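thought: fold this chain, then report.
action: predict
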Amino acid sequence: MENFDEIEPKKGIKKYDYRLFKRLFPYLKNHFLLLISTLFFMLVMDVTGVIYPFLIKIGIDRDILNKDFAALQQTALLLLLVMGSSFIFQVLFNYSVQYLGQRLLLDLRLHLFKRIVHLSNDFFDQTAVGKTMTNVTNDVEALREFVSEGIVSVIGELLKVVFIVVAMMIINIKLAILAFIMIPIFVVVTIIFRKSIRTGYRGVRRANAQINTILQESITGIREIFQFNYKERGLESFKKANSYYLVSFLKIVHAYALYFPVIEVVSNVSMVIIFLFAHKALGISVQLGEIFVFFTYINMFFRPLRQLAER
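observation:
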């Protein structure tokens, strides 16, 4: 059986992610059309999501300020069309990406089960049954998440960031540079966050495998436990495994509890910088619609970056 414990990065996350993707590629190739459709839905969803704030800016700065209500009606209709398209393609993307993940889950579990039933007795003598069960259940589910909520979502979030940056640079390059001042702080905080959750999740996976192993061995060997009075020893082992799980999971909880509020502050500070210093510090002539669209894009900009940090 393939050892899917290698999803745990030991020396370098990039190295193991590449190896993992390489091993998953044959499974993805079996669903090539579904993968391409999912990526297309994601692309349209990202483009329409970036366009609609720009249309609102046009409606404010061009139509409302010039009191051109005929043009405003056209802009409003176009805005409704874009928002409707964004909704439709978001629904299609959410369904297709989850369907792709479940198809991969089915293929992986069937493949692993076929490998298990052909393994020698030596393998089962050397490998705990609970660990094998964890490979087929929890670890395969982690692989599904790696594809459907990892690879595909990361591509989508990166594209969205690129589209937002391009839109901001087109609208007002000086304001865009001003908005990006807080990015170094975001990068530092994100590096610390990723390191914390990676350590926590690694511990959770190990603890989960230990818990499954102890449970399986205790249930199948319950007669021997009573016969040789191993109840206290078994209870102590189970307690240690669960304590390790708790400590590891709390590392994740602490990281999330701090990270998102800090990033929210970074995002808000970026907006405050634009609001306070756009006119005075740089002498930029800023229209009302530009202020609105930049506030919207800053929120949209940091949202995918936060999600990327979790991958």
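thought: worth noting. The radius of gyration is 26 Å.
final: tokens above.
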